[in-house]
Amino acid sequence: MTDFSMELNEDQTTLQDWVHGFSENVIRPAAHEWDEREETPWPIIEEAAKIGIYSLDFMANAVADPTGLSMMIALEELAWGDAGICMALMGTTLGVAAIMANGTPEQQMEWIPQCFGTPDDIKIAAFAVTEPDAGSDVSSLRTRAVYDAATDEWVLNGTKTWITNGGIANVHVIVASVDPELGSRGQASFVVPEGTKGIRMGQKFQKMGIRASHTAEVVLEDCRVPGSCLLGGKDKLDEKLARVREGKKASSQAAMATFESTRPAVGAQALGIARAAYEYSLEYAKERKQFGRAIIENQAIAFKLADMKTHIDAARLLVWRASWMAAARKPFLNGEGSMSKLYAGETAVRVTEEAIQILGGYGYVRDYPVERWHRDSKIYTIFEGTSEIQRLIISRAISGVHIR
């Protein structure tokens, strides 16, 4: 097991500087434009692919870091540049994480490269769980997967909503119910390859924040995929369903296995937004003069900045701890993954709001970026489990009581 250290090694420092440079020179100058356009920033993705940030190799190397910190460092720096563009770049990793969590080694080798493509032929992926009537309650999924033994195909029907890259992805990973009577224990994940008939984009959402990231419905109508597209394989699924029907414990749920691995990553993105707002408002407070002196000389402003910095550093500690625990395969006995996402998400909202307050009227207009950062921050208390759901997970973990 790798020892935990707060001091970054040479490789991690190099990674941090490299990604920060890309965010500073490429992402930030384009952030306002793509927020206004509310479109996927393909030119930015192409630039990221050319230098290797948007690639399977980048993700594999970051995930392989035994300390668990490399991916968190990269995500913080990308979100520091712009959260919407960060999601456009990293939304694919949600689909990849689902394949990694549920797929066989052969399926991982087949599908994960297709999620990224190449710099000359870029691909993107999507992970689809949420439905109009099933958000935090994943046990209520209505999307059905029915096996057709005659053709060795699965037939998918249903509607997914709030899906990053939904409908435009080259590879979709769909969580569907195989046996509705078993609730979340009767679900499985399926890869829907590019060009499959019966899958289409529904409504595209116009969002408050992270507007450079595409979010839409995914509609499945008699969508047929080969039996080999069931992640984990049919034998494994049949064994799991048999155990559940006999009253035995099943392995992790298809959706939860993905969320457990991505919550610290979500926290890292929120951390990047918070840090961006803190750094900007700190410099503003040093330069802005009122009543003959810089406003940072007033305790009311200085104390805000002190609190902002304290919350940011505390959030980073929680994110790094959870990431290290995951890499070291230490169980989240007290909901450490949820703690990191909860605290970092709420810190981003708090810090960006205070940044607006420090800038006053300037913070409220789009000429200054803190307004966008505040809009972007709010989603981090909502997606991949709301703050209320994170508190539910933590409270159950620390109490051993099934709190509702």
Q: Short summary of the structure?
A:
The chain has 404 residues and is an alpha+beta fold.
Q: What does this molecule look like?
A:
The longest helix is centred in the C-terminal third of the chain and has 34 residues. The model has no long low-confidence stretch (mean pLDDT 93). Helix 4 packs across helix 9. It contains 13 helices and eleven strands. It has a four-stranded antiparallel sheet, with no helix packed on it. Strands 3-6-7 form a three-stranded mixed sheet. A two-stranded antiparallel ribbon has the order 1-2. The chain is an alpha+beta fold and 404 residues long.
Descriptors for this entry?
4-stranded antiparallel beta sheet; single chain; Butyryl-CoA Dehydrogenase, subunit A, domain 3; about 400 residues; alpha+beta; 3-stranded mixed beta sheet; Butyryl-Coa Dehydrogenase, subunit A, domain 1; about 50% helix; Butyryl-CoA Dehydrogenase, subunit A, domain 2; 3 domains
Give the topology, please.
Blueprint: H1 10-37, H2 42-51, H3 56-64, H4 70-81, H5 83-90, H6 92-102, H7 105-116, E1 117-118, E2 121-122, E3 125-128, E4 144-148, E5 153-164, E6 171-177, E7 187-192, E8 199-204, E9 215-226, H8 234-245, H9 254-287, E10 289-290, E11 293-294, H10 299-327, H11 336-359, H12 370-377, H13 387-399
Parallel strand pairs: 3-6
Antiparallel strand pairs: 1-2, 4-5, 5-9, 6-7, 8-9, 10-11
Helix pairs in contact: 1-4, 4-5, 4-9, 6-7, 6-9, 9-10, 9-11, 9-12, 10-11, 11-12, 11-13
